[in-house]
Design a protein that fits this description.
Length: 166
C-alpha cells in the first residue's frame, strides 16, 4: 500500500505541489490497469491532498449522459446530460471548465449547496470522451489555470495507466 505524501508545505508553488501529487498518483497506479480501481484511488488521493475542496470524483460517459463513478465527498447527482451543468459542458465541449462562481454558471446543477467553485476536466482517449474529473470547493475562485495544468497531468497519467472502458 502506498502512503500519500503530506503536501502541507505552504512554501511550494502549485507546479511543485502538483508534481509531487502526480508522483503519488503514479505510484498508486503502478501495476494496476483496472479503470474502476484506478479512478477510485485517484479520487481518494485528490480528495485528501487538495486543500479547500468538498468533492472529488469521476463521471463516466454512457450514451449521451455522464454517470456517477468513484468519488469522495457527499452523495452526488447520479446522471448528468451532456451539455448540462459544468460537468456536461466539459464533456460536450471536450474542454476543461474552470468556474470561479458556480452559481453564475448557466445551468449549474447544485448537488451540494456548499459548493461555490468548480473545475472539471474531460477524460479523453484520443478524441473520444470517456468521462470527466469533477472537483468542487466551498471557496469562491478556488481553481485557476495552474490547477487545470496540474490536474491535466494527473488525468493524463490516469488515462495512460488504465485499461479504458470500450
Amino acid at each position: 500500500m502506498h502512503e500519500i505524501t503530506a503536501h502541507d508545505d505552504l512554501s511550494i508553488d502549485k507546479a511543485e505541489f502538483y508534481a509531487r501529487l502526480g508522483g503519488d498518483v503514479e505510484a498508486i497506479l503502478t501495476g494496476e490497469r483496472d479503470w474502476i480501481a484506478n479512478t477510485a484511488n485517484c479520487a481518494a488521493i485528490l480528495f485528501h491532498a487538495l486543500r479547500e475542496i468538498n468533492w472529488a470524483g469521476f463521471y463516466f460517459l454512457q450514451g449521451e449522459e455522464l454517470v456517477l463513478g468513484p468519488f469522495q465527498g457527499k452523495p452526488a447527482c447520479v446522471r448528468i446530460a451532456l451539455g448540462r451543468g459544468v460537468c456536461g459542458a466539459a464533456g460536450a465541449q471536450k474542454r476543461t471548465q474552470v468556474v470561479p462562481v458556480v452559481h453564475e454558471f448557466p445551468g449549474h446543477i447544485a448537488c451540494d449547496s456548499a459548493s461555490k467553485s468548480e473545475i472539471v476536466l474531460p477524460l479523453l482517449s484520443g478524441d473520444r470522451l470517456v468521462g470527466v474529473l469533477d472537483i468542487d470547493s466551498p471557496i469562491l475562485n478556488r481553481f485557476d489555470e495552474a490547477d487545470a495544468a496540474g490536474l491535466q497531468a494527473i488525468v493524463d497519467c490516469l488515462l495512460g495507466a488504465s485499461d479504458l472502458p470500450v
